[in-house]
Amino acid sequence: MPFGWFFIKKGTPNFNLSWSESVDESLCFGWIDSTKKTIDNERFKQYFSKRKPKSNWSKVNKHKVKMLIDQSLMKEAGYKSIEIAKENGSWTILDTVERLEIPEDLEQELRRQKGAMKYFESLNKSSKKGLLYWVASAKRDETRNKRISEIVENASLQMKPKQFRYNGIQQGLEIIATYRLAKLHILTDIIGCLNIYK
């Protein structure tokens, strides 16, 4: 699979290609951006590679492609990647995620477990979209079924799967709570010692 790293030095006066523009260029030729890595305080590199045939198309990239076509900037390789995506379904697979539509297999399993569907429906839009994308992005049936089972099992317990359960704020609050509890224990021990020597 062809790939390349795009190296960028921050603050370079003669360099004015934005991340969005670099993505536009890659889409024109049937490529896609991926990992961004920091090299040092002044430089970073962005990974680009040829789009895999079954790589799902996001709403943002589909919008970009439309603009590129309207501006007659799309190249033959770019058109080919779109054609392949439309043939294998990866062009539209995320449309249902954007509309927050629950796939039939997930819905059936959620309804089989008491309280699971009610909990899932109570989630905010962002959480639902994350879970639906997780299911839709599975490359194999075994992976998809495993993810559905994990979602349903946790939903029946009124929770999200572990990797979706905690965000940075929640983790920070837990750390603060643990710290405060530790201080309380220390203070309690000190008071206990003082009482002994009264």
From TrEMBL:
Q: Mind telling me what this protein is named?
A: Bacteriocin-protection, YdeI or OmpD-Associated
